[in-house]
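Field reference: sequence -> structure
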Amino acid sequence: MSIQSDIEARLAQVEPEVEVLLAEVVGGDTVRLFIDHPEGVTLGLCERVTHHLTEVRERHALEVSSPGTQRPLTKPDHFRRYLGRRARVRVRDEHHGRRSFTGELVGASDDEVTIAADSGVVAIPYADIHRSNLMEE
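Structure field:
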């Protein structure tokens, strides 16, 4: 089970309104967690989430924060929610001779996202995406 799946399962029990946008291990010993909530992310919510993740804190340092203006996009629903907005999509291996695409999100199926980048419109399978986030307007 990935760290993100583990955290999502734990929070679903105690904070069902919290959406885990991204959970990643950085530097080998820190888990960086970006969360969202329909009523916004407050310091109090970040503190509650931190306290709910005791098992994670036993193994890693834990950083919990709001997504900010450059919110991570990790699931098909995230891409669908922000169609029409600018995003940067970075891929694991070269795709059309590039590893990074910035442009307008123009499509999001269950399998791939379509972005109108400066080099043209390109469809990128979710499985190929290393990291993706919204760009500031």
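Note: Residues 94 and 100 are 8 Å apart (CA to CA).
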